[in-house]
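hi support,

uploading two proteins for the ticket. first:
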Amino acid sequence: MAVVVQSSRGWVLDACSLIDQEYSRCIRWRDNQKSHIKCHFKRQCFQISKSHDSVKATATVDGGNSDMQQKTNKVAKKRKRKHSQLNQGEVDSQIFHEKIRSVIVEETKSLVDSARSLGHLNGGTDTVKELLPFQACSLAALCEMAKELPLVDEEEQECVQSLVAEFGCTSHVDLFSRVTENKADWATAVTLMGEEYVIPPHTAFLLSDFKRIQPLVNYGRKFDLIVMDPPWENKSVKRSRRYSSLPSSQLKRLPIPLLASTNCLVVTWVTNRPSHLRFVRDELFPHWGIEVVAEWFWVKVTTSGQFVFPLDSQHKKPYEVLVLGRYRSSADDSISSSKTSEVPVEDSRLIVSVPSALHSQKPSLSEVLKRYVGAEAMCLELFARSLHPGWTSWGNEVLKFQHMSYFTLTPADDPADIS
């Protein structure tokens, strides 16, 4: 069950099941031969069973955190750091945290209790002892290399191509300057750039950065839902060097008005840095003509329903923010009826799930957002690191979590003739 709980407070998701439901039918092409398989995302990636807390304090969603607070106070005394020594960003973070703290505690408790009553978030009984999969993603580097290739005249080249040619051939697929489509009703496992990837059904993607985003615009589609997870600048990213970050000001270069349909729902993942949140609300969305309609929170819990980090930690919080807005083109200003058909987006909703142990992997929002845009909506993800059925995706690591190393393969129980 991908959506474990759905209520007026929000949702509890089984993120791994959300992925698995996309690959129940899969064809694998190898040496021009096809076989029928099932792909399962490795569940050990979602077996976060303990709270990450260096002082051994456990912050539960029951609201009782006195023990955690006492130990946090001891650490604070040891550091002898006064409130007056906090910089402005830290002060802003504390103010924002105190503003939403009661919502996070109360709403998460309600959702977790509901999930537990259904047999979920009770500690997990299928703990997998296998090591986490590791695949050194070189996609961003390949995008950098592709910049050196001459740009093809747009009038002389189609901006879209099929993933698989006759007999499963993918040798001539241009991933960097064309949108690639898998129009099949089943997932397809293929070799691209010497590596094997699993591509969901009815999906399209473009592997590129800003300098090669024009094929996505030329694709000619207007999207009813746009989700983006920008590589925000922060200290931990700089230290880890896991991926290249992007200055906030560069985000304004995204051609959202050329990609969004009227009343398009735009959803942006934001870090807990207040300056990033203010930038999205006060600069980025207005720059694109987007009206902010809600703020949601992704709350990360362990398999037993505890926050993955102490709620009042000074360093990492167990939640992230999503800012939701509606695109209002200039033509909409005089048409009051343009908003009548859209489904109102409630504020302060929570999405609760066990996070992935793989850095930067977010839960799929497809099931959560479809009621606000309709089941037949055209959906786009920007800065994507994975693919979803029915979606178009763009980014310089767009195939990252589609690599075969993240999946377990099993023969199809009923390899029916798929043609």
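and the second one:
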Amino acid sequence: MLVLRALGLGDLLAGVPALRGVRRAFARDEVVLALPPALGEAALATGAVDSVLPAEAPGRGVPSLRHWTGPPPDIAVDLHGNGPESRDALAALEPCRLLAYAEPDHGLVRPPVWRPDEHERERWCRFLGAYGIPADPDDVRLPPPAAPSPAPGAVVVHPGAESAARRWPAERYAVVVRRLRAAGHRVVLTGGPAEDALVLDVAERADLPPRDMLLGGLPFGALSSLVARAALVVSGDTGLAHLAVAHGTPSVTLFGPVSPRLWGPPRAEHHIALWKPGPPGDPHGDVPDPQLLRIGTEEVVTAALSLLPSHRTTAQPPKGDDIRGPSVRS
């Protein structure tokens, strides 16, 4: 069985409920996941796949799978998108059966229909359900990592994101770091492999000591342990926010071009999503989204302190339309 989901870390983790549905339904088969090679360790850590097939394309495109060396897959599953490109990449391997939004089986009583307003986790579980494969969109948790954390009990602040549209300004993150440290919390900064300059910028503005700057992009095992044993994760709408959900770590996530109704955490008191309602933007844009910029530092600090143990009785999240916690309000 070959599954295609060659996207980013957040996409992989949002797809875990669907992958686990596949795993349970085909327990005796080998499940191979096609995804970028940098995510191989993360994919195997889910326990939902047996092996990985390195596959990636620029700009979140559909990669070729022609380097597949095995026999035609018994079943190929397109969890990558809803267009013909991802379907065709799998069809080129001549699988015995192909499951895809772009070309559902004609024998299905209710073929799956793509809904643009549906949450990503629910979308793929419903897709599998149309094929008689049950999957639970809340089945997001990862096993506790075995490796020790590089900063146990710290507040993890991650200012980076794949696109500028989802990156809150560095100077605002610096204010949040300063305020949390002034409240007595250790704060560490993380970034991706190409985000050292951003981490250093925030650290300099916040007078953060070098020991609390985790540069170079942590390998997944270390990053997973850091998040799993953190007191709190503060980030934009990116992979680290999904990793916090996967480990049940309290989180404050800043949303801009995309509503948390589509990519946000499950409803839980320990996850807060900040968002200013408005028209959807471009999540891959090259400038910060206007709705993201409407989120102020005081809102982020207040939300963060409300989730930290020593402040839960005194700090309350701001009221209004910009908090997504145990319930969604807009």
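thanks. also noticed: Confidence is low (pLDDT under 50) at residues 312-330.
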